[in-house]
Design goal:
With 306 residues, this protein is of the alpha/beta class. It has one domain: Alpha-Beta Barrel (TIM Barrel), CATH 3.20.20. The chain has an 8-stranded parallel β-barrel, surrounded by 5 helices. Strand 4, helix 4 and strand 5 form a beta-alpha-beta unit. The protein is globular and about 45 Å long.
Length: 306
């Protein structure tokens, strides 16, 4: 059942703060564990997570069917609609696939789409601008995702500033890790009312916000959602010292959750802290190599998670 008073067709605006790039729990045989998805979502409500980013890279969406995506999105809408904005990864190379996934998300009651720069094919800037403009025209608010390290294409700051003039392009997830980019973008687009800036790099998220950003889309938030929410709130309030004090025990986690390809370590960590029943990752990924268990466990210990 939907939350009392919520409307499946009402768009909940994206917020500043901590957005979790949610993993997708799976059974030992690789099917999606929908009850475990629901439990994770309930935990994020309790923990004060500001936005839910679902079916992204961390959620292994690239190896899911449209039917599986529908199942996950229905659980998300039933559990959090009206409480936490639901941002859905709908980006890929083929614009027709972007359209199909975005329309599905919109029809099911989600609040925004996360659209990555088309990977591998290396479109020019004008092609990127058209890609995102076309996605925005579908009707669901768009958060642009720039992650050159995975896609081999970089959306320039000037292109993003141009896109921000579109009322339906509401945010940017910047996973470059280059803090000069956030400063430059904030000069080009001064108001978060015109463009919400999210860091997609956990190691630099705090400094990203302190230098003009608005929040993060975080893998670490899978493990310590309340602490990440508190850090982002303090940073947005300009309380840098308090934010840094909270962030310091997480610094090892920010790096060690990437000792293998995301979400391999995050899924192992969630199993280790008894928040997910398995650490299963769908091929071509795999469960975390045992050589890294002690490394990630030390990061969990330092963060106070175990």
């Amino acid at each position: 059942m939907l939350n009392v008073g919520s409307n499946i067709n009402e768009i909940v605006p994206m917020r500043k703060g901590s957005s979790v790039a949610l993993i997708t729990p799976m059974t030992e045989t690789g099917s999606i564990d929908l009850p475990a998805v629901r439990k994770l979502l309930e935990w994020h409500i309790e923990s004060g997570t500001d936005n839910l980013c679902i079916l992204g890279t961390t959620g292994e969406a690239s190896v899911m069917t449209m039917e599986e995506r529908s199942d996950v999105l229905k659980v998300a809408v039933e559990t959090v609609k009206g409480k936490i904005p639901i941002l859905v990864g709908t980006g890929t190379v083929n614009p027709n696939s972007v359209k199909a996934m975005t329309m599905q998300a919109m029809d099911l009651g989600c609040d925004a789409s996360l659209v990555v720069t088309p990977y591998y094919v290396k479109p020019p800037q004008r092609g990127l601008i058209k890609h995102f403009t076309d996605a925005a025209a579908l009707g669901l608010p768009v958060v642009v995702y720039n992650v050159p390290g995975r896609t081999s294409v970089d959306l320039l700051d000037e292109s993003m500033a141009l896109l921000s003039q579109n009322d339906n392009i509401v945010g940017l997830k910047d996973a470059t890790g280059d803090l000069q980019r956030v400063q430059n973008l904030r000069k080009l687009v001064p108001s978060s009312d015109d463009l919400i800036l999210y860091s997609g790099d956990d190691g630099t998220s705090l400094d990203f916000v302190l230098q003009g950003g608005d929040g993060c889309i975080s893998v670490t938030a899978n493990i310590v959602p309340k602490i990440m929410s508190d850090i982002m709130r303090l940073a947005n309030d300009g309380q840098a010292d308090q934010a840094r004090a909270l962030n310091q025990p997480l610094e090892l986690m920010h790096s060690k959750l990437f000792v293998e390809a995301n979400p391999i370590p995050a899924k192992w960590a969630l199993k280790r802290i008894n928040r997910s029943p398995t650490a299963y990752c769908r091929p071509p990924l795999d469960e975390m190599d045992p050589q890294f268990h002690s490394i990630v466990e030390e990061a969990l210990r330092q963060a106070g998670s175990i």
